[in-house]
Automatic annotation (TrEMBL):
It comes from Frigoriglobus tundricola. Residues 1-21 have a biased composition (Polar residues). This is DNA protection during starvation protein. Gene3D superfamilies: 1.20.1260.10. Residues 1-26 are annotated as: Disordered. Belongs to the Dps family. InterPro entries: DPS_DNA-bd, DPS_DNA-bd_CS, Ferritin-like, Ferritin-like_SF, Ferritin_DPS_dom. PANTHER family: DNA PROTECTION DURING STARVATION PROTEIN, GENERAL STRESS PROTEIN 20U. Signal peptide: none annotated. GO terms for molecular function: ferric iron binding; oxidoreductase activity, acting on metal ions. Residues 32-171 form the Ferritin/DPS domain.
Length: 172
């Protein structure tokens, strides 16, 4: 199997030539940062789909629909993050196994299926990922990649809105 023009460092360190003028000395760090968040958002999306499939209780239908729409929004960001990695000449490490091996998102708790318990579990995970994404905004900016910083800003906004939707079920 040919590796083409790639410079093989490791599976996650493969880079390809690019005309992208982002700082070459920081590009690898930005790619690593993006791949970490690719794993986290992919995991968050899959846990949201798990909640969508398995929620039970009197508010099943409304939560089923909510969780599906939240998963779709996160899935959009999974794709955007992966494409940013490749735009910088990196390899998006985004298989389910790669995400599972790298994700910092806590596993969805076993045996949690009752409506508001599922909402609580998801709210905890959206808050945790939102926190790490906000830190990534600054990290990408410090690395001189304002485009990646902007991408993370949009991810953060959407995660905050999703958290608002989830927390609204838990308040009042």
């Amino acid at each position: 199997m040919s590796t083409g023009t790639a410079t093989k460092k490791s599976d996650t360190g493969t880079t390809f030539p690019t005309r992208n003028d982002s700082a070459p000395e920081n590009r690898g760090k930005v790619i690593s940062l993006l791949n970490q968040h690719l794993a986290d958002t992919f995991d968050l999306m899959s846990q949201t789909k798990f909640a969508h499939w398995n929620v039970k209780g009197p508010h099943f239908y409304q939560l089923h629909l909510l969780f599906d729409s939240l998963a779709e929004k996160v899935e959009e960001h999974v794709d955007e993050i992966a494409e940013r990695v490749t735009a910088l000449g990196g390899v998006a490490t985004g298989t389910a196994r790669q995400a599972a091996a790298s994700s910092r998102v806590p596993e969805f708790p076993a045996g949690v299926h009752k409506g508001l318990d599922v909402v609580t579990a998801l709210a905890d995970r959206y808050a945790a990922v939102g926190k790490t994404v906000r830190a990534a905004i600054d990290e990408a900016d410090e690395l001189g990649d304002k485009d990646t910083s902007d991408l993370f800003t949009q991810v953060s906004r959407d995660l905050d809105q999703s958290l608002y939707f989830l927390e609204s079920h838990l308040q009042g």
